[in-house]
Amino acid sequence: MHYIWTEMFLLFLAIFISKILAKKTNTVDVLWYIVLGAVLGNIGLLPEDERIEFLGEIGIILVMFALGFEENLSNFLKGLKKAWGIAVIGAIFPFLAGYYTAKFFGFSTTSSFVWGLTMTATAVSLTMVSLKSLGLEKTPAATGIMTSAVVDDVLSLIGLAILLPIILNSGGSGNFTIDFENLQSTIFDVLAFFGFVYLVGKFIVPHKKGIRYLFMVDKGNYAVLGVFILVFMFGDVAHILGFHPAIGAYFAGLILKAEYFEVGNQNRTREIEKITSTMAFTVFGPVFFILLGSKIIFEISVLKDVIFPTLALFLAVLFLQIFSAAGAAKYTGGYSNKDSLLIGFGMLGRAELAFIVINIAYVQNHLITKEEFYTLMFTTFLLNISVPLLLKWYTPIYEKE
To answer: What is the pTM of this model?
Structure first.
């Protein structure tokens, strides 16, 4: 049991070192979280531990809430109208990149579907934290990335509901059948989640005798606790309905307005922003990204077999994701050239859904080989590293334009 204290010490030391390295090298701290996580994982100082994993989940929930809390709801809704083309096109092309890369290297149709699914959903939290570290979190492109990623995740969940049962039922044989019952259930869950967000945000939170009362007790001294109650309620509902809890947390932040925290002649909004931002971006949020990096375990014996498939898949997804998302942002969303390219870079990250698909396909059902497992893991790692690097490189160009 005492080992958790060693792990906690190493995690917070890594966060501190990452902050210093980011400052010294003029890069983003997310990059160093992932790199140091990979180092700690490979030298055996950060083994898999459910307790630490849970801490990382808490961190990413706080990150997404903080981002939602800082976002303006009307801007988000405007962005949502532009997001459909980016989300649809930005999901289809990475899927095709994964599918046909697997086919090119001679893998089965089952493997090709797994590769495609793994490359589909965007890791919005990685991008948004990177944008925040660069001071770009309030740009039109940031809103476009966030809204597109939410739609992308919904489409990816529906795709997962359609394709994953087909793949699992085939058992690798290539005989595919559609599970319509599971598909209907997923669509119902999507509608139920957004219905819940609308009802709570429109009728329950604004009412002084509703959830808003939690922010006003004892002159607002416990407003932060009231906020956390709302955040984890939304996270719980999202989890029950098949979303990552962080998506629920984002919407919990999005529906809150500064006026809800007015008590007498005081307003607690700034205080809550400061507390949640510190917890999200300095204390607990970075744990998620360090653990993300720690999942990449390098084995020399396997590396030589997967280096070419990994590079091919990485480059295919890199180019198709950037150009498809950027093109869709410009021609279907009406974004400027500079915002479109920033959206293209921002849609590159791969995280939660990718690891879920890999876990189901390899760990639970052995539908892909060990070499394929490492190919997908390394590709995910390279894509995640690319996000802060490309955003950092592009920021001066973006600001100049």
So the answer is: 0.74
